[in-house]
Specification:
The chain is of the alpha+beta class and about 200 residues long. The chain has 5 helices and 8 strands, in the order H-H-H-H-H-E-E-E-E-E-E-E-E. The site of zinc ion has 6 residues, from helix 1 and helix 3.
Length: about 200
């Protein structure tokens, strides 16, 4: 029986240590161990590693679960970071790339100095056409009197035929109004009456 090589014995040893070998195989192994110091040591080593208290049997599973949790946590963190990065980049592009900003938040700014229109309606020249036209789907039909204006202003809005669409309403500096009554893609004439010397109106 001693003809069986150490390598063969060591292949069987795990099964032998687990006591799942046949009586015949066990005899062969034991006979070899009796006269082979090296394999005896190998076997003792293996036994010391294999003998695990019952309650720690779940260790590998726990370790796996723990690793999996860590992995999931990492994935969540990375997802959140990536999302925030994308949002931040989007925001920075929106804020800093004028064309993008103008596309998504089209706004027309109208400023007047030394208005000197107290008591008189005068036309507010808006943009290139001089008329107000909400021609973008992204426009909210909103009108705001800038907070830096030095006084309130009254406004009224007419259609192209001169009919009053929105009768006089007054805006205090820093306040705005929703122009729901106005149609999209339609030109209107905006008139202003104020005693303020600086007027800044935004249509968006
Ligand atoms: Zn041996």
């Amino acid at each position: 029986m001693s003809r069986i090589s150490c390598n063969t014995i060591r292949d069987i040893l795990p099964l032998y240590v687990d006591e799942v070998v046949s009586a015949e195989t066990r005899e062969i192994v034991e006979e070899h161990l009796d006269h082979c110091e090296a394999c005896r040591k190998w076997c003792a080593d293996m036994k010391s590693r294999v003998v695990i208290p019952v309650e720690s049997d779940t260790k590998p599973l726990k370790a796996f679960k723990h690793a999996w949790k860590r992995k999931r946590f990492l994935i969540s963190v990375i997802s959140v970071v990536l999302t925030l990065t994308v949002v931040l980049i989007g925001y920075l592009v929106y804020e800093n790339v004028g064309v993008v900003h103008d596309f998504f938040s089209p706004a027309t700014l109208v400023t007047m100095r030394n208005t000197d229109s107290a008591g008189q309606w005068q036309r507010l020249e808006i943009g290139e056409t001089g008329c107000l036209n909400f021609d973008s789907v992204f426009q909210a039909k909103r009108m705001v009197l800038d907070g830096n204006c030095d006084g309130p202003a009254a406004f009224r809005i007419r259609d192209q035929q001169g009919n009053i669409v929105l009768d006089a309403f007054t805006l205090q500096p820093g306040t705005g109004v929703q122009l729901e009554k106005l149609e999209k893609n339609t030109s209107y004439i905006v008139e202003i009456k104020t005693s303020a010397t600086y007027i800044c109106v935004t249509f968006s």
